[in-house]
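Risk mitigation, structural track. In case the binding assays with glycinamide ribonucleotide fail to produce interpretable data, a predicted complex structure has been prepared as a fallback.
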Amino acid sequence: MLKAKIAVFVSGGGTNLQAIIDSEKRGELQHCELSLVVSSKPGAYATVRAKENNIPFVEINIKDFQDRKDFENEVLKKLHEYNIDIIVFAGFMYILSAEFVSEYENRIINVHPALIPSFCGDGFYGLKVHKAVLDYGVKITGATVHYVNSITDGGKIILQKAIEVHDNDTPVSLQQRVMCEAEWVILPQACELVAQQIIESRNNIK
Ligand code: GAR
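Fallback model:
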């Protein structure tokens, strides 16, 4: 069976990328294969993970382009070159245009470190999310994997996992638990779910 090809977009440490790599190694990804890593930040540790695991990667820095359109065209060129079916935003700290997103409608997914629709949208990323959770005093948080549309964190939810907030949590301790117990669990699962749908709809058309 031809598997759906995944490109993971990163900007930082890439622990979610690592979770997908590990899941693939454990044989959990039956319908997809990790085919490309796209980093928006030169030197991001995520690219070391790609290199160590023999996954092709490209660094595409927006600062090297005159405008956003040129940057996005370069990204699209790479995606076409590698025949990518699914894009996974895993700590990708850059918002792509509505035109770009519409090229891959229902084929871009994002992991967000809270239970959407809480603590999400513009300005909610990384540790800021966990700080806001603690400031508000909610007792349950978690992670969400959702489709990407033109609204920040606004696309349909694919999977969520809840985590308890502890009284002595700091933003860093909470981030670590949300990643370890929620993000790294549901992101590979969501990749497989979306890939399965794509492969099955392809088979139905044939
Ligand atoms: C993850 O916690 C991810 O959910 C978050 O950035 C971190 C990236 O870590 N993304 C957002 O906040 C997007 N709104 P990683 O590079 O180690 O995977």
